[in-house]
Amino acid sequence: MAKVRSIELKIKPNQENVVYAISLVDMPAIESNFMTFKKEEIPIMLSFDEDKHIITGPALIPNKKMWRTPESLGQKEGAFVYASDDTVIQCAQMFLANLKNNSITIMHEVPADGVKLTESWIVSDPKTDKSAALGFKDIPKNTWFVSYKIENPEVWALCKSKKLQGFSIESIFALGKVQESEEEYSELAEMMDYIAQFETQDANYPLSMCKLSEEEKGHVIKTMRIQCAAYPWDTCISDQKAKGLSDESASKICGYIKSQD
What we know:
This protein is of the alpha+beta class. It is built from 8 helices and 14 strands. It folds into 2 domains: 2-177, no CATH class; 185-259. The radius of gyration is 18 Å and the shape is globular.
């Protein structure tokens, strides 16, 4: 068991908008909840309609914990943040109500011309939802899904080449109180992978870690050392393989994690 800091993302009572845009990115913060093909061991972050040039994927997953550095939170320590079911639903509703349909960017930096929203929905029944028919698995109820038609050949090529692999929202949330809990090591896998994927340069992962400053990366390493020093090797290997990694890839990741003890 390890101590984990969590903060709920909230919408203020009189807040008129929370999601100002959706961005196509190389490494979505919610990536660990995308399905995996067991045969190919490749995570699916976007579903493609080749004929219509439409991409589909989750914009926000309820209660999915995402690691944030101290700087991004304006606090002394980093923490996992998450949005409740109600907050995810409100985000989806407010996005459309404020006519943000075609507010989409590339890597949170530049507007994506020729990319238009065609669908936005909340998953009501994961078993019968359209997302399941598109190949997504283990998607919880109340996940916010979006579909975009890509009319820009350059953007389509970036998506097909996996240089852009999913969606990330651009938003302004209020932060709830810090919650501290004892959780299983597997709950910390995302934070550990965040640094380990970059350091090992494993081919299975995009390398968004390179966009962090040395100070930000240092905070992730420090937190990992403190909370995960006793992470058992067998448990680590099991957690990584459960994500669809090969024995070799799992060993690389766990080897780096244990080197930080």
